[in-house]
Design goal:
About 70% of the residues lie in helices and about 0% in strands. By secondary structure, the protein is mainly α. The longest helix is centred in the C-terminal third of the chain and has 32 residues, at about 70-100.
């Protein structure tokens, strides 16, 4: 049961993120929901690559034994960087929406309703 806790957390985080995106009308909160989903994906990748007692593959003269998967760690770092850039771009769009419409509520933004 204790090994399943990260997977339960992943499902909970993804559910919270999806619910935030679908149920909230505020663009900033929707972006926050997307960031929560991104965090759940990162947790999923780290959980997949974890091996109990594994050695980080950064040592040149590592002792023999089980190594942690380096590909998953590299994918997680890449996902963090891409997620940061995506969040920054979406926040810039939200700022432009606020300047143009005076609100970030989707109910007040006329063009999104049409």
């Amino acid at each position: 049961m204790i090994e399943q806790i990260p997977y339960i957390a992943i499902v909970l985080l993804a559910g919270i993120g999806i619910a935030t995106i679908l149920l909230k009308k505020n663009v900033i909160k929707m972006i926050m929901g997307l960031a929560i989903i991104e965090g759940s994906v990162n947790l999923f990748l780290v959980t997949l690559g974890y091996r109990e007692g594994g050695i980080a593959p950064i040592f040149t003269d590592a002792p023999a034994g089980v190594m942690v998967l380096p590909t998953v760690q590299a994918m997680t770092v890449t996902n963090i960087v891409i997620g940061f850039a995506t969040t920054a771009l979406l926040l810039a769009f939200a700022m432009i929406l606020y300047r143009y419409y005076g609100s970030v509520e989707t109910n007040h933004i006329r063009r999104l309703r049409e």
